[in-house]
Each structure stands twice: as structure tokens, then as C-alpha cells.
Design a protein that fits this description.
Blueprint (H helix, E strand, L loop, with lengths): L5 E6 L3 H11 L5 E7 L2 H11 L3 E5 L7 H10 L5 E6 L5 H4 L6 E4 L4 H30 L5 E6 L2 E6 L3 E7 L2 E6 L4 E4 L3 H8 L4 E3 L4 E4 L3 E5 L4 E6 L2 E6 L2 H10 L6
Parallel strand pairs: 1-2, 1-3, 3-4, 4-5
Antiparallel strand pairs: 6-7, 8-9, 8-12, 9-10, 11-12, 13-14, 14-15
């Protein structure tokens, strides 16, 4: 998957199933298993901290349906690629609206998993190509103004005014370099589509930051510090994002 492996979280219904799934997936060098869980509660915690690209999840967890687990992620604007695992195909139709990348019935077939990984790598490369094309297009324009909708009207901001964005249920808080907080009506995903600029990167479940204001990253405590004219903001950052920024080798990471 270009320079990065596919970061993968496995959430199974019991320890034996987890061991079996891990044993099969370890046979694929493209996958980097960053987390394992046998309850939805632990899966949420690990997923929020690590923000994996791919989640293998059993449809029947001990504390929550695997489908309900993914629905909850979607509502929080967390959208990893999802592969459901089940003992039968009875949940396959119900899973369709969640747009899973695949649905596997036990026993897991390595040949099917291999083909799934090939398709996933192709999807990633296509998305990466589109992202680069979009970046190139934005570099050709000097217009950095964006229009955001609020409850009582609109507000026009330049992107350089925005230090970071934070998800708040069905709205987004834009923190400006003046210290002001602006609440817009759109969810974080829609807000980032409006911003549509390469300098804004996701650091975790609820935050996007403007890299122009990134001063340093605390690798141990998983947070990054943003700075502007004497003001500082500490923002949570996932391990995956730290790894990406380390590869860029342009920020002080300690």
C-alpha cells in the first residue's frame, strides 16, 4: 500500500475466534495488526486511539451487534474500511447499507482475503491519486476564502484564519487564530469537504488541524501543539498520524 502497511483492528466475539482470525491475517504482510479486542467497548477505545484504516469485526459481539458498532462509528464520522466476519450469511443483506468492503463467512479463506487486499490496495492508490490531483488544483488558485453556514446565516473565512476544527455532534467548531470559536452547522466531514485543502489533516477522531500552525508533537502523550503569536493549543493525535508526520520529517517529534 505505497509506503504504508494497512493498519488493521480485529474485533472478535471471543478469545478463540480472535486467535483464529489473527492467525490467518498474520499470513498477509500487507496488514499491520495494530489492535485486537473481544468486546465492542474495547474496540471503541482502541479504534479511537489508533484510527486504523481497516477493521475486521464479528457480526455477533458479546456486548453489541457488529453492525450496530459500525453504525455508531459512522454517526461519529469515523469511517474505516470494514470487513464483517460471521458464522453464516444471515447478516449480509442487513450489512449492505453500511457499505462494508467485504463480508466473510467462517472458516476464513486466505484466497478470498488475498483478493480483498488486492482490491483494497487499488482503492487506496486511486484515492491517493485523486488527492494529489486535488492538491495540484488547489495550488493553482490563490482563493483561500470559504463560506460556512451557521444557524443564523453564513460566515466567510480565509483558511489561514482557522487553526483547527473540532467535531461537536452534528456541528463543527472552528478555532480561529484570534482565539475566537465559530460554530458551523455542518458535521466535521462535510466541513472538511468545504475547506478542501491539503494543509488540513486529521489527527484523531474529532480533530483536523491546519499544519501551518503545527509547532511540535508529543509522541509519548499523543498530542500535538499548535502555535500562533504566543497562543498555544494542545490537540490529541493518533499513533497513525504521528507515524505519517515522522515520515515527513519536518516537525519536531519527541
Amino acid at each position: 500500500m505505497l509506503e504504508l502497511k494497512i493498519t488493521t483492528l480485529i474485533i472478535e466475539k471471543d478469545q478463540q475466534s480472535l486467535n483464529e482470525t489473527v492467525a490467518v491475517l498474520k499470513g498477509f504482510n500487507e496488514l499491520s495488526i495494530v489492535g485486537k479486542a473481544i468486546t465492542g467497548k474495547n474496540g471503541f477505545r482502541i479504534g479511537n486511539n489508533l484510527a486504523p484504516y481497516l477493521v475486521f469485526i464479528n457480526t455477533d459481539l458479546p456486548d453489541i451487534s457488529g453492525l450496530d458498532f459500525i453504525r455508531s462509528l459512522r454517526k461519529r464520522d469515523i469511517n474505516p474500511e470494514v470487513v464483517f466476519i460471521s458464522n453464516d450469511a444471515r447478516h449480509a443483506f442487513e450489512a449492505l447499507p453500511l457499505k462494508p468492503f467485504d463480508y466473510f463467512v467462517r472458516p476464513l479463506d486466505p484466497a478470498l482475503i488475498s483478493r480483498m487486499i488486492t482490491r483494497l490496495k487499488f482503492k487506496y492508490k486511486k484515492a491517493e491519486l485523486m488527492r494529489k490531483m486535488d492538491e495540484y488544483t488547489k495550488m493553482q488558485t490563490v482563493n483561500t476564502k470559504r463560506v460556512f453556514h451557521q444557524k443564523k446565516g453564513i460566515i466567510v473565512l480565509r483558511l489561514e484564519e482557522i487553526v483547527f476544527c473540532k467535531a461537536e455532534l452534528s456541528s463543527t467548531v472552528l478555532k480561529l487564530r484570534t482565539g475566537e470559536s465559530v460554530i458551523v452547522k455542518t458535521k466535521i466531514g462535510e466541513t472538511i469537504e468545504i475547506i478542501n485543502h491539503k494543509e488540513f489533516i486529521r489527527t484523531g477522531r474529532s480533530y483536523y488541524i491546519n499544519r501551518e500552525y503545527l509547532r511540535k508533537i508529543d509522541k509519548k502523550n499523543l498530542k500535538c501543539m499548535l502555535y500562533y503569536e504566543g497562543q498555544t493549543w494542545d490537540i490529541p493525535v493518533s499513533k497513525n498520524t504521528v507515524g505519517l508526520l515522522e515520515k515527513l520529517n519536518v516537525y519536531p517529534i519527541y
